[in-house]
Write a structure and sequence with these properties.
2 domains; 9 helices; about 0% strand; Four Helix Bundle (Hemerythrin (Met), subunit A); about 260 residues; mainly alpha; single chain
Length: about 260
């Protein structure tokens, strides 16, 4: 038990260091990967916290992480779209969005949401140690394993639902994948699980980008030149995602 708590504390401290580094990079406004790295780090924090729900301090830290996610999601979407437009011969549309991002990066660094996350993140190891000393972490390993198994079961059910929602599947796959990576010592999943999950997440990510960009094009006129390509991309991505999901289902789940 003590070793598991030690690893949790070390993991949280490592995440805090990475968030602080991302904040500094965003403030300097010289690093095109800073926003993406911040979001990835916060996502890994949320994956670490999800199986710990019910413990002191977890709800507050989850809420703070969620608010940073809400703040940065539309910005990251714009960033990805700008990169796509620049690569696909739409420089004016790309530059308009990139100009907006120059103001967004330091704004995220100075945001109340990020400051609040860092305050709670800094205090969280003390909550864990206090809970440990009070005997509130007894059975923690089993508690985490149960939560991880529940996430796996939800993905199993969603994959075998003939009317499955690709948006929900994408979310469930992310949760399971990052849960495995957050608690590798508790991983009880089939050997092919992680590479299959990564492939499925990538395929669904391509589909999601095309779907989202088509929705944006209905309101943003400068995206109209891309609509025909995105419709083709969406159809192809749907087919590719379905094949990858079928492989995931057959490799890791019983029919």
């Amino acid at each position: 038990m003590s070793a598991l708590v030690d690893r949790l504390v070390a993991h949280v401290l490592g995440i805090e260091v990475r968030v602080l580094a991302c904040q500094a990079r965003l403030q300097a406004n010289t690093d095109p990967e800073a926003l993406h790295d911040l979001r990835t780090t916060v996502r890994r924090l949320r994956s670490l916290l999800r199986p710990l729900r019910g413990l002191p301090g977890v709800e507050q830290l989850e809420e703070a992480a969620s608010k940073v996610g809400e703040l940065t999601t539309p910005l990251r979407d714009r960033e990805v779209l700008a990169a796509y437009l620049l690569k696909h011969n739409q420089p004016e549309a790309a530059q308009r969005r990139m100009a907006m991002m120059k103001e967004a990066y330091p704004a995220v660094a100075a945001s109340t949401e990020l400051s609040q996350l860092l305050i709670i993140l800094d205090a969280f190891p003390r909550f864990l140690r206090a809970a440990q000393h009070q005997g509130l972490l007894k059975g923690l390993r089993k508690h985490i394993e149960k939560r991880l198994a529940k996430q796996w079961k939800k993905l199993d059910e969603a994959l075998h639902d003939p009317a499955h929602d690709r948006h929900r599947l994408r979310l469930l796959i992310k949760r399971v994948r990052y849960g495995i990576e957050a608690y590798p010592e508790l991983d009880r999943l089939p050997k092919p699980a992680l590479p299959r999950l990564k492939s499925a997440q990538s395929a669904l990510g391509d589909w999601h980008d095309a779907w989202q960009w088509l929705a944006r094009a209905e309101e943003e006129a400068d995206l109209q030149p891309c609509v025909a390509v995105w419709k083709t991309t969406l159809a192809e991505a749907e087919g590719r995602a379905d094949k990858v999901l079928d492989k995931l289902s057959k490799a890791c789940f019983k029919s």
